[in-house]
Amino acid sequence: MPVNLDPIGTAHTDAATIPRHWTVSDVEGTLVIDPRYTDGLSDISAGQQIVVLFHFHKSAPFSSHLLKQTPPHKGQSLGVFSICSPRRPNPIGMSVLTVLARHDNVLHVRSMDMIDGTPILDIKPFIFDKRHLPSRKSDE
């Protein structure tokens, strides 16, 4: 069953280096969304966090020897589905970005971990639900 995804926009940044993950990034940039989707951005505003799904368009092709990889910050071999490597069977990335401003079809964001020109596949709201966190016993 073929799955076809068409980008809804493109990420842009002038940053010379891009952090490996959004949780350690202060990089700012823009998500320029195709104007035909502008109405879909109408309820996104500054201060909000959004989930951005994107295509690792510059990633080398995946092969079965990449099912186990050693991330530089982990020091041990881990399964590809437990890490954030761009070399995966379906080269889809996910970041949680903070919206700094929205002007029509352009979102100004922070915490970017995608390179300039990255195709954006989708944007979703970031919803944090404390009920699903492990409980912590207090130290009394």
What attributes does this structure have?
globular; 0% helix; mainly beta; 6-stranded antiparallel β-barrel; Elongation Factor Tu (Ef-tu), domain 3
Structural summary, described in words:
- By secondary structure, the chain is mainly β.
- It contains no helices and eight strands.
- It has one domain: Elongation Factor Tu (Ef-tu), domain 3.
- The strands form two sheets. It has a six-stranded antiparallel barrel. A two-stranded antiparallel sheet has the order 4-5.
- The model has no long low-confidence stretch (mean pLDDT 89).
Spatially, the strands of the biggest sheet line up as: 1-2-7-6-3-8
Distance between the termini: 56 Å
Q: In total, how many beta strands? A: 8
User: Cα-atom Rg, whole angstroms?
Assistant: 17 Å
Q: What's the gist of this structure?
A:
The protein contains no helices and eight strands.
Helices and strands in order, then pairings?
Layout: E1 9-12, E2 28-33, E3 49-55, E4 68-69, E5 78-79, E6 92-103, E7 106-110, E8 119-125
Antiparallel strand pairs: 1-2, 1-8, 2-7, 3-6, 3-8, 4-5, 6-7
